[in-house]
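task queued by scheduler; priority normal; single chain, no ligands, no partner chains; default sampling; output format set to structure tokens
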Amino acid sequence: MGDPGAVFKAYDIRGIVPDELDPELCRAIGIAVARFLRPERLLVVRDMRPSGVPLCEAFADGARSEGTTVVDLGMASTDFLYFASGRLDAPGAMFTASHNPAAYNGIKLCRSGAQPIGRDTGLLEIQQLTTEILGAPPSPRSTPPAPLEHLDLLSDFARHVRSFVDLESLRPLRVVADTANGMGGLVLPIVMEPLPFELTILFPELDGTFPNHPADPIQPENLRDLQESVLREGADVGLAFDGDADRVFLVDEHAQPVSGSLTTALVAVAMLEKYPGSTILYNLVCSHVVPEVIAEHGGRGIRTRVGHSFIKATMAETGAVFGGEHSGHYYYRDNYRADSGIITAMVVLELMSRSGKPLSELLAPFRRYANSGEINVTVADPHAVVESLAQHVAAEGAAVDRLDGLTAEYPDWWFNVRPSNTEPLLRLNVEASSVQDCDRHLGALIELLTSRFGALGPDAAAEGSRGLAR
């Protein structure tokens, strides 16, 4: 039986199947969710991982034993669950491990209206309930389980996605999408079918063993098949989705990757054209180009902490129409303040259609800085290192910001370093005016962290992300 303490994370539940996450644990989680939320109906969705079937069934059985009707929406993407939760005004559970390897699975939870459930908004209480349920002796079922219903909303979701663009403005474009054997292979064709795009999908087969490459598009090596296909097909744009298709990364017509920051800036322009003077959110790791572009187009930019729970809460407080994160998550007020990779792809395709310009030309005004991408640095005590580093950079005269970890601003460059929520890691981002300056400052920071603060140096896998943000 799995251990709740090993799988409950800051924003979701995730672990290796069956060593950490198994049907017995999922049944207990289902009971805990039903007891905590007390819903009449609970929505369940799963991705294409084979382990999702028994885990989802066990979770549903647990919830139904508490008198909660479970509505099985089948296989779909995470942003589909958020749509369904908003449309049906019911809480939901998405069984997915997103970009993690095939051995993993997990659960993303939301309240009615797609409101997030994280560690500070209910997940800790659900973990405690789960632990109590597992520790109690089993009790005989005294009443029949609540019903299990089935509902197909994929066509409704596709119409919802298309509602974010002016369909009359769309022109023929050649699009290549790498769905990495993930849920994009199911959802994207349904959304795109009536549109004037020539769509080629790489690895559309739903296969949770990921036989072609990992479903993690933030890593440059996982974009290579898409880049080669864009050049070979003469495509206008490439789209790379993660396993549960809630994130998307772009590749331009020259096969150059587009960072999450540049995509945030591009979509912000589109949102401000549609809603002049509106509020746009961006997390503090986004490039400085994002607030600059928002201001230049008459918007009000608000900087937030990293993480979907903070973005969604701030959207609710401010009425922001859009929010973007460097990690490829993009949030929309009219999507129940939830993130969607496929809506973002549609907004970009509409921009390209209306402008008649290639993606590289649309992005050219935003390529103002060089960014390291997110690099993981292993340390024994991340929080202690951040505190020591804050004192060090303040003594150097940097402007120090503690909104999320440590942000240090210098006249011509800046960096942010944040402790991981789940591992003994620091997540480091550096931005400067040129690649050479960015590399120089990054090297000096890593040298400081290793020589003075005992860091073990950057993880090899994280180093691969550096080029993506440039």
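post-processing summary
- Confidence is low (pLDDT under 50) at residues 460-470.
- The first helix runs from residue 4 to 7.
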